[in-house]
Design a protein that fits this description.
It is a single chain. By secondary structure, this protein is mainly beta. The protein has helices at about 10-20, 25-30, 50-60, 140-150, and strands at about 1-5, 10, 85-90, 110-115, 125-130, 160, 170, 175, 180, 190-195, 200-210, 220, 240, 255-270, 275-290. The protein folds into two domains: about 1-130, no CATH class; about 140-290, Immunoglobulin-like. It contains four helices and 15 strands. β11 (about 200-210) and β12 (about 220) form a beta hairpin. The longest helix is centred in the first third of the chain and has 12 residues, at about 50-60.
């Protein structure tokens, strides 16, 4: 079905299809004629050949694209390294009031239509604005770069210094727990990742270690713990410790399974943005808890 507008037959189903997925050629055509077809106008009052173009401008720019190269309502999905993108420079330039400019001055900027595909269902497109004379660059998500930087780090679980697997521990005697600190097991650990002219730097550090003691108790330590000194005698650890109230004789292998879980907090910044990521790592150990035998 189609409608007659000023003697021209318009196929509305085709217009709707073009609205949902702009091709590179359509993007160029839309903006080249944007001076005639204005976004937001009622398509029924446009004339002749501008009918389809209006739909593309009004919905393609205003509703379907988020201006960052991805589709509105969701993230771009996949990195630019996974996408094959084409860029079409829009000439002649549309008027300054056109929404694709996002408030930028056409005298100082060029407009491109970006169309991408990852070979599957991820086909983001949209308009990008770049300084006059500069080539378009891939749209980069700084948080994605931050994750790449984290992936380049070797973030490991806690390096348990105490309790030691070969240690002998006694019911009722305070156990001091602490971990060795290094860039890979505690932090800080810093790495950077770059793409499309954007560089993001991330710094990771353990913010807490949660100890599952194997006897049903859990201990949260907000630091690496304090190494035991003989001068402390029978005192409890001031920062990270536990007192067992029963032996491990009934546990499998005669030892309690201990799990130390570290939470890595990663602060990142770059590309005009900043944020925080979290990574979780674990280390397992076993401890034998006995009873103090009194000889008479």
């Amino acid at each position: 079905m189609g409608d007659e507008v000023d003697g021209h037959r318009v196929d509305r189903s085709r217009s709707s299809l073009l609205t949902r997925r702009l091709s590179t050629l359509t993007g160029a055509l839309v903006l080249a004629t944007a001076g005639i077809a204005h976004a937001g106008d009622d398509p029924d009052v446009d004339v002749g050949e501008c009918q389809v173009v209006e739909f593309c401008v009004g919905v393609g720019v205003g509703d379907e694209t988020d201006g960052s190269g991805g589709q509105a309502g969701g993230s771009q999905g996949g990195s630019d390294s996974d996408l094959n993108c084409g860029y079409t420079k829009i000439e002649p330039k549309p008027p300054a009031e056109h929404p694709a400019w996002k408030g930028k001055d056409p005298e100082k900027y060029d407009l491109y239509f970006r169309s991408c595909s990852d070979g599957g269902q991820d086909n983001p497109d949209g308009f990008i604005v770049v300084p006059t004379g500069q080539p378009p660059v891939p749209q980069v998500d700084p948080q994605e770069l931050a994750q790449r930087a984290v992936d380049a780090m070797t973030l490991l679980g806690p390096d348990i210094a105490s309790p030691k697997a070969a240690g002998k521990y006694i019911v009722g005697v305070p156990m001091w727990m602490w971990v060795n600190q290094s860039a890979t097991t505690y932090g800080p650990n810093t790495a950077s990742a770059s793409a499309g002219g954007v560089t993001v730097t991330a710094t990771a550090k353990v913010s807490k270690v949660v100890w599952q003691m194997g006897d049903g108790d859990s201990v949260t330590c907000n630091g690496p713990g304090t190494p035991y000194q003989a001068s402390a005698g029978m005192a409890q650890s001031p920062t990270c410790g536990h007192v067992y109230s029963k032996t491990s004789a009934g546990a499998q292998g005669g030892k309690f399974p201990v799990t130390a879980t570290s939470t890595w907090t990663i602060d990142w910044q770059g590309g005009g943005a900043a944020g925080q990521l979290t990574e979780i790592r674990q280390t397992n150990a076993q401890v034998a808890i006995g009873e103090l035998q009194v000889v008479r």
